[in-house]
Each structure stands twice: as structure tokens, then as C-alpha cells.
């Protein structure tokens, strides 16, 4: 009887973790898309300066890299492999007028609903 109860508890735990993981994905997608058509200076005012700013093939990219819960400054050395730590990378692409045209994210430590990253 005890092993059956233990199995139910473990199953419920995994179900809860799967639901929370799905919620994080929805929340992060919503946070990133909330900045669509806004200006980069608005994001910088809300999130702070980006960790990296790149121009690649005419694309203006801004990245905010968080490792172990700390926003990396431009001179911060990144882990050799992001899997070595908890990380969250937010990427925004801006057009020539600094209007955001694309946003994406990846990571194993993105806070989802409680990030404060939504506009």
C-alpha cells in the first residue's frame, strides 16, 4: 500500500513540474512578444544595458545574458557551455530605426511569469 501511495506522489510531482515548465514557456514567449514594435531605449530602461550588442549581416541584435541569476555585463566571461550553469538568454532584433522586429529566448533558468520582463 505504501509503495502505491509513493508512486502516486511521485507521479503528481512530475505532472506539476511539467505544468510549471509549460507555464514558463508561455510566460517567456509572452514577455518577449510584448516588446514587438517598441523602441530599444524602452527595453534598456526596463532591463538595463544589454550584455551584448551585435551587428550581423545588417541585423542589429541585443542580448541580455543571465548566468546563475546574475545579468552578465559586456565584459563578463561566459561559461564554456551554458549547460554548466543556470542561464537565460533574451535576444531582441531591432530595425534601423531601433524598433524591435523580433524577440526570442532560451535557457534552463528563465523565470517566466515572475520575471518582470514583460512590457
Task: Describe this entry's structure for a reader.
The chain has one domain. The longest helix has 32 residues, at 2-33. By secondary structure, it is an alpha+beta fold. Strands 1, 2, 3, 4 and 5 form a 5-stranded antiparallel β-sheet that branches. The chain is globular, with a radius of gyration of 18 Å. The protein starts with a helix and ends in a 12-residue tail after the last strand. It contains 2 helices and 5 strands; from the N terminus they run H-H-E-E-E-E-E.
Helix-and-strand structural type: alpha+beta
Strand content: 25-35%
| C-alpha Rg (nearest Å) | 18 Å
Biggest pleated sheet? 5 strands, antiparallel
The helix-strand sequence is: HHEEEEE
Number of strands: 5
Number of domains: 1
Model regions low in confidence, pLDDT < 50 over at least 5 residues: 9-22
How helix-rich are the residues, as a percent range?
A: 25-40%
Look at the structure and give the mean pLDDT: 77
Number of helices: 2
Globally, the shape reads globular
Separation of the first and last Cα atoms: 50 Å
Topology of this protein?
Blueprint: H1 2-33, H2 40-47, E1 52-56, E2 59-67, E3 70-71, E4 87-94, E5 100-107
Antiparallel strand pairs: 1-2, 2-3, 2-4, 4-5
Task: Write a concise keyword list for the protein shown above.
alpha+beta, 5-stranded antiparallel β-sheet, single chain, 119 residues, 5 strands, 27% strand, globular
Provide a short characterization of the protein structure.
The protein is of the alpha+beta class.
